[in-house]
Specification:
The structure is a homodimer of 382-residue chains. Helices cover 39% and strands 14% of the residues of chain A. By secondary structure, chain A is α/β, with parallel strands linked by helices. Chain A folds into 2 domains: 245 residues, 3-Layer(aba) Sandwich (Aspartate Aminotransferase, domain 2), CATH 3.40.640.10; 98 residues, Aspartate Aminotransferase, domain 1, CATH 3.90.1150. In chain A, strands 2-8-7-6-5-3-4 form a 7-stranded mixed sheet, with helices on both faces. In chain A, strands 9-10-12 form a 3-stranded antiparallel sheet. In chain A, strands 1-11 form a two-stranded parallel sheet. In chain A, helix 2 packs antiparallel against helix 11. The longest helix of chain A has 17 residues. Chain A is globular. The relative contact order of chain A is 0.15. The interface between A and B is large, with 95 and 95 residues.
Chain lengths: 382, 382
Amino acid sequence: MLDNLDKFRCLKRSTTGAINIDPLQRGGVLTPEAREAMMEWADGYSVCDFCTGSLEGIENPPIKEFVHQVLPEFLEADQVRITHGAREGIFAAMHALCGAGETVVADGNAHYTTHLAAELAGLKVELVPAGEGPHYRVDPQGYQEAMERVMGRGERVGMAVLTYPDGNYGNLVEPKAVSEICHDEAVPLVVNGAYSVGRMPVGAKSLGADVIIGSGHKSMASSGPIGVIGATEELGSRIFRRSKLVPNKELEMLGCTLRGAGIMTMMASFPAVVARTKLWDEEVEKARWFAGEMEKLGMDLMGDRPHGHDLMFFKSQVLYEISKTAKKGRYFLYRELKKRDIFGIKPGLTRQFKLSCYQLPREDLKAVISAFEEIISSHPKA
Amino acid sequence: MLDNLDKFRCLKRSTTGAINIDPLQRGGVLTPEAREAMMEWADGYSVCDFCTGSLEGIENPPIKEFVHQVLPEFLEADQVRITHGAREGIFAAMHALCGAGETVVADGNAHYTTHLAAELAGLKVELVPAGEGPHYRVDPQGYQEAMERVMGRGERVGMAVLTYPDGNYGNLVEPKAVSEICHDEAVPLVVNGAYSVGRMPVGAKSLGADVIIGSGHKSMASSGPIGVIGATEELGSRIFRRSKLVPNKELEMLGCTLRGAGIMTMMASFPAVVARTKLWDEEVEKARWFAGEMEKLGMDLMGDRPHGHDLMFFKSQVLYEISKTAKKGRYFLYRELKKRDIFGIKPGLTRQFKLSCYQLPREDLKAVISAFEEIISSHPKA
């Protein structure tokens, strides 16, 4: 194997130049400034040129100001740290704040990493079930019931997690309602804002969250993996506690996390990210228009109505019918879109799929609509 | 704060173009191929274009082949995964393999993150003390004694860690000797190769290690944070076990780790990294020559003699004497080197400091020697 490595040298990304509607990727496209930062700070450990012992203490480049002054204001949190991503932030919060064997109450639409983080931290998970389709809504009142079920079994609720919005339907549960229920039971609320922090105008205080989690590569135009975690003073002092064995280092972060270019891309993109959150209403309006056009073609938007996020889940019986007789079967949609330089719907899906319009110009979205229109009209249905 | 963000847009690295002798940074300088990969794959989550559920399963780009075929051969390990860095790999191994309250036996020169990882995993640490200066050697036999101390207290030894080489003196402890002692007691040996994997020709089997840890940003010409972990089939099946709640995901990695450009830089640099490990003897010879020149100027190399690594620790009474009367006091050395475009010795250090010659051409190293010579001869001693 080690004699034949040339193939790894110059790998090209085959989707470059295409219209990408993958919800995972829309909010992580770098700004031009972040691309410049990437080249400037590419070398391993580059940000540590003037380190004095902790990543978030570095003054040149001004990571300290960014993490300790700018991000707390942006996230409406007392204390902020940089993490390897949203999942790693959720794990840190769970591991630091919950006792072994406690239960985390989470929304039924939570990302799978919420389950993994709880399991890795030695915790159980009790779900607030999502309702039936087409809306798949989570009722805030369900948090009360879930906590009662846990306590009724004689177990302790260590934490509640609300995914805002969830990554399947883009549904937005009223966070204040969840927050009040949690705080009445003295349970801290963690809001997983992987799809909101950096897209929507959100902050821990406005949401009623004790801890807020964000994802740089998902929603802050950053080169991943990278995320943010913000917390109240009280919970922050527990999550970001110092090590006993190495007293000048923060234990839960193993000292330093993002010792590389990723943090520089987050900083370089940040002015544009703050600006785009102020234009969120336009993104929502665009998403609603797009969904309307898709529905005219016979596909059905799932989740909240009116829809409040760029992430959309469609059911499309019409494409499923086509797939039954199409060349390449259920891969026909992927191939037809690829032919038109449109990427982001997973290969093999036709009956239901997710997509996002985020930060795409209307012309591109019109091209996507036209593509679906052409594909549907040019194929016989089964 | 959020109205004045322009300063974050276009931050430049002020050390660009300088001779950098920081041991942390020498092995992480990107290859030209990795710089290209960086731009090609810069966007958040770029490598997930064709994801089918796990990072290490991605075939386009060929991450699967790299992680499951190429790296195992390189690391002489049955199973390999990508981590966020060496410390995160050590934590994963400790968390997966040790029971709560067990003790980790580690060399007295271990990196501070070994202590942090153990503490975060709920483990105790028993050190094999390093000897006195100037050699600061760790005797393999000390592992036997440390394990006996732990067992004598009625505690269980969950794991042994050997830092190979350590990050202070660049000392290389005979790993086979440590391995035999550990295996006689049925204790798994983790070798922290943050300063060897990607520099020296090392592999888990040759070292007698059950788990081997590497750092991409420290020694594999990768944009950080990124690392590798390799393990035997048996220990790998425990470290990389699947989640119970989300059965298609690996628990300890929270599903996927390096969902970004870093893995692409590691792959792009890898052919050059493999090639450079074959020239390791030349690097050692260069380091010995450099140390000899420094000693002629009155500075003393600490650690192994003859020295076996590019990372070197010097004591320099002469520079300390100068600092007592120099303008700017103990910062004079940093400033004098900076004037000559040489970076990498921490500001304020004179009496002792670390540096590395790794991958620097002789001409640059001669410039460094000349700089020290000039600085010493042009300053009065106290």
